[in-house]
User: Which sequence fits this backbone?
């Protein structure tokens, strides 16, 4: 059993920011970051809207900087994947997938979110064989091939721009005419000649035996179906909080799995805080996650100083 003042679950911007504040307040701080510490930013290309960077920075570099900053301040970052949280008052017991246990006076849950899938026919069978939720990770395999991107948010638009650099044709499929993506990114897509938009359309089915060969699109206004040949389908339809592992704990969540917090990032359990995308339905931005992580770190430091 490893004892610590604070255990943070998640090494994305929320977890790292919480760690910076906690460590600078004198807390012994451990981040359990999972197999790939860094979260969704590791899959993001250019970030242009994180305050303080004059030029765009890659998600990987931003996370690498945050991890180095944490380590410089004495924070330990492990690859443990926490699967269980027990206790309703300190010390809390946390168990990692390999059975390793931690005892912590305070906990910050910053477990982030993962990609949401479409749930259509053919998707499960062809995942990893033409269907991907990460253009940055898998785009290279589709060099020179025609691909489809699904979604109307920043992820879909940025994925389309990224893929358009290596694919001859990118079709962005979105279920309505309005976009969630910001205006600058939408304009960049519209200015890219090898990206075409299929609006008011959804993917009804992904076709292919060994790998993807086409999608069946349905126009939601006319119900007309069309077949679009493609080698890859990049699904970018939002995210789901990574909180299933908390089922069975006393931490309150809403029906969609988001952890409920107050404005100080406190959960319903004194000493357990939550921050970032596992608490956020609307503003899933790195800078917002870092901000909520800072609040959680400050709160955790105050809590530990009262209880140790
Ligand atoms: P998002 O903003 O929630 O957008 C998801 C998109 O998928 C929406 O357009 C939604 O359509 C569509 N959608 C949802 N379920 C669908 C389904 N079953 N079938 C078809 N379409 C579906 O998600 P995101 O793009 O992943 O972005 C998440 C957050 O991260 C956002 O806050 C975003 O701004 C942020 N982000 C920021 C950056 C950046 O600033 N550089 C980059 C990436 C992401 P509707 O619009 O009709 O609901």
Assistant:
């Amino acid at each position: 059993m490893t004892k610590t003042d604070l255990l943070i679950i998640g090494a994305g911007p929320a977890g790292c920011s919480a760690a910076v504040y906690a460590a600078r307040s004198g807390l012994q701080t451990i981040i359990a970051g999972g197999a790939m510490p860094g979260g969704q930013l590791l899959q993001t290309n250019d970030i242009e809207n994180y305050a303080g960077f004059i030029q765009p920075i890659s998600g990987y570099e931003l996370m690498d900087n945050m991890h180095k900053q944490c380590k410089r301040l004495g924070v330990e970052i492990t690859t443990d994947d926490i699967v269980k949280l027990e206790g309703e008052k300190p010390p809390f017991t946390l168990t990692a997938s390999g059975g390793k246990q931690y005892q912590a006076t305070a906990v910050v849950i910053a477990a982030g979110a993962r990609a949401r899938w479409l749930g259509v026919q053919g998707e499960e069978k062809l995942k990893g064989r033409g269907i991907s939720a990460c253009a940055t990770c898998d785009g290279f395999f589709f060099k020179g091939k025609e691909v489809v991107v699904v979604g109307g948010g920043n992820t879909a638009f940025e994925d389309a721009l990224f893929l358009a650099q290596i694919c001859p044709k990118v079709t962005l499929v979105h279920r309505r005419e309005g976009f969630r993506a910001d205006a600058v990114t939408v304009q960049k897509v519209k200015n890219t000649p090898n990206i075409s938009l299929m609006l008011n359309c959804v993917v009804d089915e992904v076709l292919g035996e060994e790998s993807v060969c086409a999608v069946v699109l349905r126009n939601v206004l006319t119900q007309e179906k069309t077949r679009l040949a493609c080698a890859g389908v990049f699904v970018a339809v939002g995210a789901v909080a990574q909180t299933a592992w908390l089922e069975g704990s006393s931490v309150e969540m809403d029906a969609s799995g988001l952890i409920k917090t107050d404005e100080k990032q406190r959960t319903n359990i004194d000493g357990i805080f939550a921050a970032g995308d596992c608490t956020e339905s609307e503003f899933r931005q790195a800078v917002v996650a870092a901000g909520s992580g800072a609040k959680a770190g400050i709160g955790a430091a105050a809590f530990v100083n009262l209880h140790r």
Q: What stands out?
A: The CA atoms of residues 6 and 29 lie 5 Å apart.
